[in-house]
């Protein structure tokens, strides 16, 4: 359903991604891992269509992404970034309602159906008690849940995450990823997420992509990829890999020099 | 259910504000050097429609004063107020900057520049009953925005910060040129004319100007209302709006064009009336919330009512001499705004 063919990108003269080939099937849950500057965020932005490849094509359900209208893309692809800033005092419910933007037209405001979708999204994320609070007054974790609900209100087939838990404390990290995993399992939403934390990626994602210097260095299951040798080569950090005591998934521990 | 409730609330607020505006208009036309009773005004206006035939209990001079002097002035004032408040909403929404007002990206300096050149010309030409000054102010304002937009454009994109900075630079330069022209010119009365343009005053003679400017302003406000939900999405920033399916660069151009058109149309009637385009949008947002679908029309109506009252003060307080309206908008508006700012629960997090 998402197919990248020889996709390259550069910011001005600085190349960021080189000849990326990638196929992601419907219902997959894929994490992008790699050191800072390896191109994770850029790849997410390319997949969302807000950046366009300088070479190669991205196919979304058979159509070429860069030829689709923004509105059409947003009806299928939702993005949860690290954080949003919101200058105005919108309530949480009003922010979630913004997720319906790609479905509204210039001549019609939102209808009953849109309010139902918004309400369902709010309940699914479990933030109904907060819905009349001002978005700006919520904690970082609550805000990130609101953004996830907003993305959900887009009724996306593909959910892109750009380090969605980067600024959150540990219980919110787990909560957000639990919610994302449930969306993936229960509703078949395809998830592609740039992740910082190798262990969270190992716990929640089925398929990992390791990026290094703008290329895909390795592609496979956490068990296959998260080895001490691979991680040392990609991240230039010395680590040891053990097992998570409950899930038996690979668990990376750093070794101080 | 929720939808209907929300839409009813929106409608109710707008109807109330509309009624308030009508009341302000009525008060403003009845007061002046000669006062005309509101009842007579209503009867005279209804007679004009041809459907009613009230017998005249007023002097015929009252009718002349009402229809040829006061009503045009009051209508012009409400158009200026509506235009500046709407433009303020558009610019604040798009630029996500609390200091944004209709003049922030060069319109004011451009208008002053155009007007000053027109004032210095030795000829006085009238075109479609407009003097040269309003026309020059209109195109000066639009020209300045065009210049700012193109200066800020880098590789097909116009980052908002670049636009603000370019606007600041162009404004500073044009203002300096205006003062240079005033300093070097030997034309008598130029300083006085430029000064009164900069402070603003509602000056129209009869209806001719209004007939051209009114459709422009009302049309632009209606068009802007259709963009309102996209402005809501733009409050998440350019990246966030793009994720929600907004073609950000295209919408930026539309918002900029509508906002500049409104501002240029307003300054062609009134010169530079300050403060209203900054404060009315903020005040309405503090009271009614940031949803542009309500904010935009509510700000237009409130701005109109506010400016009509301000103009009433300007021409009556020290009658027969007039105070520049920009002084009134600031003196009344600022304390009211500070009161709202301190009382309200809704906070800003720019």
Rg of chain B, nearest Å: 21 Å
Shape of chain A: globular
Largest inter-chain contact set: A-B, 37 and 33 residues
Helix and strand pattern of chain B: HHHHHHHHHHHHHH
Enumerate the spans of chain A where pLDDT stays under 50 for 5 or more consecutive residues: none
Q: Uncertain runs of chain B with pLDDT below 50, 5 residues or more?
A: none
CATH level 1 class label of chain B: Mainly Alpha
Rg of Cα set of chain A = 19 Å
Indicate the multimeric state. heterodimer
How does this model look, in words?
The complex is a heterodimer of chains A (257) and B (350). Chain A has 257 residues and is an alpha/beta fold. Chain A has a domain at 86-155. Helices cover 33% and strands 27% of the residues of chain A. Chain A contains nine helices and twelve strands. Chain A has helices at residues 40-48, 70-74, 92-97, 112-125, 140-153, 170-187, 198-204, 222-225, 228-235, and strands at residues 2-11, 14-24, 29-33, 55-60, 63-64, 77-80, 158-162, 190-194, 207-212, 215-220, 239-243, 250-254. In chain A, strands 6-7-8-3-9-10 form a six-stranded mixed beta sheet, sandwiched between helices. In chain A, strands 2-1-4-5 form a four-stranded antiparallel beta sheet, with helices on one face. In chain A, strand 4 and strand 5 (63-64) form a beta hairpin. The termini of chain A are far apart. By secondary structure, chain B is mainly alpha-helical. Helix content of chain B is 74%, strand content 0%. The radius of gyration of chain B is 21 Å and the shape is globular. The mean pLDDT of chain B is 88. The A-B interface holds A 48, 50, 69-75, 78-79, 81, 84-91, 94, 98-99, 101-102, 104, 106-107, 109-112, 115, 134, 136-137, 154 and B 1-3, 7, 96, 98, 226-227, 229-230, 232-233, 235-237, 239-240, 242-247, 285, 289-291, 293, 346-350.
């Amino acid at each position: 359903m998402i197919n990248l063919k020889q996709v390259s990108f550069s910011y001005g003269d600085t190349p960021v991604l080189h000849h990326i080939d990638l196929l992601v099937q419907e219902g997959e849950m894929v994490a992008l891992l790699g050191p800072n500057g390896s191109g994770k965020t850029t790849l997410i932005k390319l997949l969302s269509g807000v950046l366009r490849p300088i070479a190669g094509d991205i196919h979304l359900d058979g159509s070429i992404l860069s030829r689709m209208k923004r509105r059409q893309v947003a009806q299928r692809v939702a993005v949860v970034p690290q954080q949003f800033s919101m200058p105005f005092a919108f309530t949480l419910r009003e922010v979630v309602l913004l997720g319906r933007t790609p479905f509204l037209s210039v001549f019609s405001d939102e209808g009953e159906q849109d309010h139902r979708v918004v309400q369902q999204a709010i309940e699914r994320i479990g933030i109904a008690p907060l819905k009349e609070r001002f978005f700006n007054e919520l904690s970082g974790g609550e805000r990130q849940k609101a953004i996830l609900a907003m993305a959900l209100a887009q009724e996306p087939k593909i959910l892109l995450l750009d380090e969605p838990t980067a600024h959150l404390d540990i219980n919110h990290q787990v909560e957000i990823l639990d919610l994302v995993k449930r969306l993936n399992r229960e509703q078949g939403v395809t998830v592609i997420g740039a992740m910082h934390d190798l262990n969270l990626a190992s716990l929640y994602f089925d398929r990992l992509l390791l990026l290094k210097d703008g290329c895909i260095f390795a592609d496979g299951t956490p068990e296959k990829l998260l080895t001490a040798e691979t991680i040392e080569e990609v991240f230039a950090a010395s680590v040891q890999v053990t097992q998570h005591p409950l899930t038996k998934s690979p668990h990376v521990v750093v070794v101080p020099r | 259910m929720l939808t209907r409730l929300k839409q009813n609330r929106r409608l109710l607020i707008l109807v109330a504000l509309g009624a308030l505006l009508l009341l302000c208009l009525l008060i403003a036309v009845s007061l002046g050097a000669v006062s005309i009773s509101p009842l007579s005004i209503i009867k005279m206006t209804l007679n004009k429609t041809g459907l009613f035939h009230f017998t005249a209990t007023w002097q015929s001079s009252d009718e002349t004063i009402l229809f040829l002097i006061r009503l045009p002035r009051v209508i012009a004032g409400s158009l200026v107020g509506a235009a500046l408040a709407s433009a303020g909403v558009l610019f604040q929404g798009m630029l996500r900057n609390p200091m944004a007002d209709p003049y922030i990206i060069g319109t004011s300096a451009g208008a002053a520049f155009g007007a000053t050149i027109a004032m210095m010309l030795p000829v006085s030409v009238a075109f479609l009953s407009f003097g040269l000054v309003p026309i020059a102010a209109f195109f000066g304002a639009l020209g300045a925005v065009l210049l700012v937009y193109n200066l800020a454009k880098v590789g097909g994109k116009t980052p908002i910060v670049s636009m603000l900075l370019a606007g600041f630079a162009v404004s500073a330069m044009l203002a300096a040129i205006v003062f240079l022209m005033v300093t070097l010119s030997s034309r008598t009365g130029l300083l006085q004319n430029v000064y009164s343009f900069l402070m603003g005053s509602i000056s129209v003679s009869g209806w001719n100007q209004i007939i051209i400017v009114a459709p422009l302003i009302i049309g632009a406000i209606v068009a802007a209302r259709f963009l309102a939900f996209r402005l809501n999405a733009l409050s998440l920033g350019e990246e966030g709006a793009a994720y929600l399916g907004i073609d950000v660069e295209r919408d930026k151009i539309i918002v900029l064009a509508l906002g500049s058109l409104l501002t240029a149309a307003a300054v062609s009637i009134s010169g530079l009336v300050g403060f209203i385009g900054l404060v009315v949008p903020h005040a309405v947002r503090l009271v009614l919330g940031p949803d542009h679908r309500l904010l935009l029309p509510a700000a237009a109506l409130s701005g109109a009512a506010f400016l009509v009252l301000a103009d009433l003060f300007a021409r009556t307080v020290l009658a027969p001499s007039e105070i520049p309206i920009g002084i009134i908008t600031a003196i009344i508006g600022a304390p009211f705004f500070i009161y709202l700012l301190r009382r309200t629960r809704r906070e800003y997090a720019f």
